[in-house]
Amino acid sequence: MTPTLADVIAVLDRLYNPAWAESWDAVGLVTGDPEQQVRRILFAVDPMRAVVDEAIGGDFDLLVTHHPLLLRGVNSVAATTPKGRVVHDLIRSGTALHVCHTNADNANPGVSDALAAALGLQDTRPLKAMPSDPMDKLVVFVPVDETQTMLDALAKAGAGQIGDYERAAWSGIGEGTFRPLEGANPTIGQVGDIEVVPENRLELILPRHKRRAVVEALKAAHSYEEPAFDIYELAALPSERGGGRVGALSAPLPLRDFARLVADHLPRTEHGVRVSGDPERTIETVAVVGGAGDSEFERVRAAGVDAYVTADLRHHPATEAQAYDEGPALVDVAHWASEWPWLRDAERLLLEGLAAQGSTVDTHISTLCTDAWTLRF
């Protein structure tokens, strides 16, 4: 089955949720009709003119890029500007453009996972972990004989999911007591009389965004006119998502050999691989950040790694970092090269997601080098 653009974007949004993007970012669909069919998809780092021409000339229905075309707000996309002409050409040719930027940086697996894997790092963890999704704990009191019915209703609404387990709950039996007042319509007891009822206390966790649905299911399943329940907002814990990755080499290497490994396993650019540190220093633990990473020096130092691989290192942050005797060696690569390995992951994961829903597409990864620097003396 040939998917629609909406079908493809639904899979991409599950892999790279737009909610994971940084607040300043511009991700998602730039051009394209959600109802159009998608037969061919091109993956690239940058939506440069040459890449757009490759997509249009190759009859691709969708171009998926890491970097945005329109990161900053614009008042016009008239064809009088270079980016405006790109937008016009994409629309005229029926080529959709979709961007997965910092939402792909923060995903798991994401951009830095692909970079870490390309360098052979093992046992990786986020350098800058995002908090886990907000969670609640629900506590509800039900007559003992209604326990299983209530559990079924709450589980169906999304409560009680822990990893690969569903309908997970804790219960304990106690006594509930109440006196119905005038105007009440009690399920148990009479108006004016004190009632004591054996009840189960049920505790389940749930994603906060499902709170309304779970409470509605609780009220619909409960026999009481006014069911008693509590909702507690749980503390956020670090998740496996976030920027950068920290891992270890399978065997220690001198810095000189590690830098050669980096050069051999990333696409070649005129920028090449720059190294700061003693070439004979032993490298075992490594932090990586795909893209510009000199804003993460504090986290990298706190991680205690032997080397830091990233892009776009500037003079002052790099020399300041070098001033710390305990700091890591620095391996600076081209921005484009550090993010290009992600394209393979995005292609593979998208194909798997579409196959799971019975869809197939033809995919291709652009090998056009869109690094800014084209000559070095």
Beta-strand residue percentage: 25-35%
- The N- to C-terminal Cα distance equals 52 Å
Q: Shape from CA axes?
A: globular
Overall mean pLDDT score? 95
User: Uncertain segments of ≥5 residues (pLDDT<50)?
Assistant: none
> How are the strands of the biggest sheet laid out side by side?
5-10-12-13-14-11
Number of E strands: 15
Range of helix content = 25-40%
What quaternary form is this? single chain
What do you see in this structure?
This protein is an alpha/beta fold. It is built from 12 helices and 15 strands. It has helices spanning 5-15, 49-57, 82-93, 102-105, 111-118, 147-157, 211-221, 255-265, 297-303, 315-322, 335-339, 342-356, and strands at 28-31, 40-44, 62-65, 96-99, 122-131, 135-143, 170-178, 195-207, 229-233, 238-254, 274-276, 282-292, 307-311, 329-333, 362-365. The strands form 3 sheets. A 6-stranded mixed beta sheet has the order 5-10-12-13-14-11. A 5-stranded mixed beta sheet has the order 1-4-3-2-15, with helices on both faces. The protein has a 4-stranded antiparallel beta sheet with strand order 7-8-6-9. β13, α10 (315-322) and β14 (329-333) form a beta-alpha-beta unit. α1 packs across α12 (342-356), α5 crosses α12 (342-356) and α6 runs antiparallel to α7. The mean pLDDT is 95.
